[in-house]
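sry for the spam today, last one i promise. C-alpha coordinates for design, 201 residues
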Protein backbone atom coordinates (compact mmCIF):
# COMPACT_ATOMS: atom_id res chain seq x y z
CA UNK A 1 0.00 0.00 0.00
CA UNK A 2 1.19 3.49 -0.82
CA UNK A 3 1.77 5.93 2.06
CA UNK A 4 -0.94 8.32 3.19
CA UNK A 5 0.10 11.95 3.60
CA UNK A 6 -1.30 14.06 6.44
CA UNK A 7 -0.81 17.79 6.89
CA UNK A 8 -1.42 19.80 10.04
CA UNK A 9 -2.14 23.50 9.48
CA UNK A 10 -2.77 26.24 12.02
CA UNK A 11 -6.52 25.92 12.51
CA UNK A 12 -7.89 24.99 15.89
CA UNK A 13 -8.62 21.28 16.18
CA UNK A 14 -5.17 19.75 15.98
CA UNK A 15 -6.58 16.86 18.03
CA UNK A 16 -8.32 15.62 14.88
CA UNK A 17 -5.03 15.43 13.00
CA UNK A 18 -3.13 13.81 15.85
CA UNK A 19 -5.80 11.16 16.33
CA UNK A 20 -5.86 10.49 12.59
CA UNK A 21 -2.10 9.90 12.51
CA UNK A 22 -2.37 7.66 15.58
CA UNK A 23 -5.06 5.54 13.92
CA UNK A 24 -3.21 5.28 10.61
CA UNK A 25 -0.06 4.14 12.37
CA UNK A 26 -2.08 1.62 14.42
CA UNK A 27 -3.49 0.29 11.13
CA UNK A 28 0.09 -0.31 9.94
CA UNK A 29 -0.08 2.42 7.31
CA UNK A 30 3.03 4.35 6.31
CA UNK A 31 2.41 8.04 7.03
CA UNK A 32 4.01 11.12 5.51
CA UNK A 33 3.44 14.09 7.82
CA UNK A 34 3.79 17.81 7.15
CA UNK A 35 3.40 20.35 9.95
CA UNK A 36 3.05 24.08 9.34
CA UNK A 37 4.70 26.54 11.70
CA UNK A 38 1.30 27.73 12.89
CA UNK A 39 0.27 24.11 13.53
CA UNK A 40 3.24 23.70 15.85
CA UNK A 41 2.04 26.70 17.85
CA UNK A 42 -1.54 25.40 17.97
CA UNK A 43 -0.37 21.93 19.04
CA UNK A 44 1.51 23.43 21.96
CA UNK A 45 -1.57 25.52 22.89
CA UNK A 46 -4.28 22.87 22.56
CA UNK A 47 -2.51 19.74 23.80
CA UNK A 48 0.07 18.62 26.33
CA UNK A 49 2.48 17.87 23.50
CA UNK A 50 5.42 20.17 22.88
CA UNK A 51 6.48 19.64 19.29
CA UNK A 52 10.13 20.41 18.59
CA UNK A 53 11.06 22.70 15.72
CA UNK A 54 12.88 20.49 13.23
CA UNK A 55 11.15 17.85 11.06
CA UNK A 56 13.49 15.04 12.10
CA UNK A 57 12.91 15.90 15.76
CA UNK A 58 9.13 15.95 15.27
CA UNK A 59 9.42 12.54 13.59
CA UNK A 60 11.30 11.08 16.55
CA UNK A 61 9.00 12.75 19.08
CA UNK A 62 5.73 11.59 17.51
CA UNK A 63 7.05 8.12 16.65
CA UNK A 64 7.87 7.64 20.33
CA UNK A 65 4.55 9.19 21.41
CA UNK A 66 2.53 6.85 19.17
CA UNK A 67 4.88 3.88 19.71
CA UNK A 68 5.47 3.57 15.97
CA UNK A 69 8.42 1.62 14.60
CA UNK A 70 11.27 3.55 13.02
CA UNK A 71 10.47 4.64 9.48
CA UNK A 72 6.69 4.18 9.61
CA UNK A 73 6.20 7.91 10.18
CA UNK A 74 8.18 10.35 8.05
CA UNK A 75 8.00 14.09 8.68
CA UNK A 76 8.92 16.58 5.97
CA UNK A 77 9.76 20.27 6.25
CA UNK A 78 7.72 23.07 4.70
CA UNK A 79 10.30 23.70 1.98
CA UNK A 80 11.56 20.14 1.54
CA UNK A 81 10.98 19.95 -2.20
CA UNK A 82 12.79 16.60 -2.48
CA UNK A 83 10.00 14.91 -0.46
CA UNK A 84 8.01 12.26 -2.39
CA UNK A 85 4.77 14.25 -2.04
CA UNK A 86 6.25 17.08 -4.13
CA UNK A 87 6.16 15.10 -7.38
CA UNK A 88 3.51 13.36 -9.41
CA UNK A 89 6.04 10.62 -10.14
CA UNK A 90 5.73 9.35 -6.55
CA UNK A 91 2.41 10.51 -5.10
CA UNK A 92 0.95 9.11 -1.87
CA UNK A 93 -2.28 7.17 -1.96
CA UNK A 94 -4.11 10.16 -0.44
CA UNK A 95 -3.50 13.55 1.13
CA UNK A 96 -5.47 14.69 4.18
CA UNK A 97 -5.17 18.26 5.44
CA UNK A 98 -6.45 18.05 9.00
CA UNK A 99 -7.18 20.56 10.32
CA UNK A 100 -7.28 22.83 7.27
CA UNK A 101 -7.17 26.61 7.62
CA UNK A 102 -9.09 28.93 5.33
CA UNK A 103 -5.71 30.22 4.15
CA UNK A 104 -4.58 26.75 3.07
CA UNK A 105 -7.99 26.23 1.47
CA UNK A 106 -7.48 29.40 -0.57
CA UNK A 107 -3.91 28.52 -1.57
CA UNK A 108 -4.84 25.07 -2.80
CA UNK A 109 -7.97 26.33 -4.59
CA UNK A 110 -5.86 28.83 -6.52
CA UNK A 111 -2.90 26.58 -7.25
CA UNK A 112 -0.43 28.51 -5.09
CA UNK A 113 2.33 26.05 -4.24
CA UNK A 114 4.77 28.05 -2.13
CA UNK A 115 5.10 25.36 0.55
CA UNK A 116 5.11 21.56 0.63
CA UNK A 117 1.58 21.24 2.02
CA UNK A 118 0.07 23.22 -0.86
CA UNK A 119 2.20 21.32 -3.36
CA UNK A 120 1.21 17.92 -1.95
CA UNK A 121 -2.47 18.87 -2.32
CA UNK A 122 -1.84 20.15 -5.85
CA UNK A 123 -0.14 16.86 -6.79
CA UNK A 124 -3.04 14.85 -5.36
CA UNK A 125 -5.50 16.77 -7.52
CA UNK A 126 -3.52 16.58 -10.74
CA UNK A 127 -2.76 12.88 -10.27
CA UNK A 128 -6.39 12.13 -9.43
CA UNK A 129 -5.49 10.90 -5.96
CA UNK A 130 -7.77 11.44 -2.97
CA UNK A 131 -7.53 14.87 -1.32
CA UNK A 132 -9.49 15.34 1.91
CA UNK A 133 -9.66 18.81 3.43
CA UNK A 134 -10.95 18.94 7.00
CA UNK A 135 -11.85 22.61 7.08
CA UNK A 136 -12.03 24.18 10.54
CA UNK A 137 -13.61 27.62 10.24
CA UNK A 138 -16.91 29.20 11.20
CA UNK A 139 -18.81 31.03 9.90
CA UNK A 140 -17.89 30.67 6.23
CA UNK A 141 -17.65 33.72 3.98
CA UNK A 142 -18.62 33.57 0.33
CA UNK A 143 -14.87 33.48 -0.40
CA UNK A 144 -14.50 30.30 1.69
CA UNK A 145 -17.55 28.76 0.03
CA UNK A 146 -16.31 29.65 -3.46
CA UNK A 147 -12.94 28.05 -2.69
CA UNK A 148 -14.62 24.91 -1.35
CA UNK A 149 -16.84 24.67 -4.42
CA UNK A 150 -13.86 25.12 -6.72
CA UNK A 151 -11.94 22.36 -4.96
CA UNK A 152 -14.93 20.02 -4.86
CA UNK A 153 -15.32 20.47 -8.61
CA UNK A 154 -11.62 19.64 -9.01
CA UNK A 155 -12.13 16.37 -7.13
CA UNK A 156 -11.31 17.21 -3.51
CA UNK A 157 -13.43 15.94 -0.63
CA UNK A 158 -14.44 18.88 1.57
CA UNK A 159 -15.08 17.55 5.05
CA UNK A 160 -15.67 20.32 7.62
CA UNK A 161 -14.99 19.27 11.20
CA UNK A 162 -18.66 18.80 12.11
CA UNK A 163 -19.06 15.84 14.47
CA UNK A 164 -22.47 14.22 14.84
CA UNK A 165 -24.40 13.85 18.08
CA UNK A 166 -26.88 11.08 17.25
CA UNK A 167 -24.67 8.53 19.04
CA UNK A 168 -24.79 10.62 22.25
CA UNK A 169 -21.09 11.38 22.78
CA UNK A 170 -19.94 11.48 26.39
CA UNK A 171 -16.47 12.96 25.98
CA UNK A 172 -14.53 15.29 23.72
CA UNK A 173 -12.61 12.24 22.54
CA UNK A 174 -15.89 10.73 21.32
CA UNK A 175 -16.43 13.80 19.13
CA UNK A 176 -12.87 13.63 17.81
CA UNK A 177 -13.24 9.94 17.02
CA UNK A 178 -16.47 10.58 15.12
CA UNK A 179 -14.68 12.89 12.68
CA UNK A 180 -11.59 10.71 12.40
CA UNK A 181 -13.83 7.71 11.69
CA UNK A 182 -15.36 9.56 8.74
CA UNK A 183 -11.91 10.40 7.39
CA UNK A 184 -10.76 6.79 7.76
CA UNK A 185 -13.90 5.61 5.94
CA UNK A 186 -12.97 7.77 2.96
CA UNK A 187 -9.42 6.43 3.09
CA UNK A 188 -10.73 2.84 3.13
CA UNK A 189 -8.92 2.18 6.40
CA UNK A 190 -10.74 -0.20 8.73
CA UNK A 191 -11.55 1.04 12.24
CA UNK A 192 -13.90 0.64 15.18
CA UNK A 193 -13.89 4.22 16.42
CA UNK A 194 -17.60 4.95 16.39
CA UNK A 195 -20.99 3.38 15.96
CA UNK A 196 -22.49 3.22 12.48
CA UNK A 197 -25.96 4.47 11.70
CA UNK A 198 -28.51 1.67 11.64
CA UNK A 199 -26.26 -1.03 13.15
CA UNK A 200 -28.61 -1.40 16.13
CA UNK A 201 -31.69 -2.02 13.96
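last one done:
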Amino acid sequence: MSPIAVAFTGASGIQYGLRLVECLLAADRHVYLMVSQAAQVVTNMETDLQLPGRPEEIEQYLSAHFDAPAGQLQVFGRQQWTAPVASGSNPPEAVVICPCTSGTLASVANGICDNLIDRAADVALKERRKLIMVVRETPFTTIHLDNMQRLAQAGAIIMPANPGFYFRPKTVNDLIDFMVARILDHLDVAHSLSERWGDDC
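The helical segments are 14-26, 37-46, 55-65, 102-109, 116-126, 142-154, 172-186. ok im logging off now
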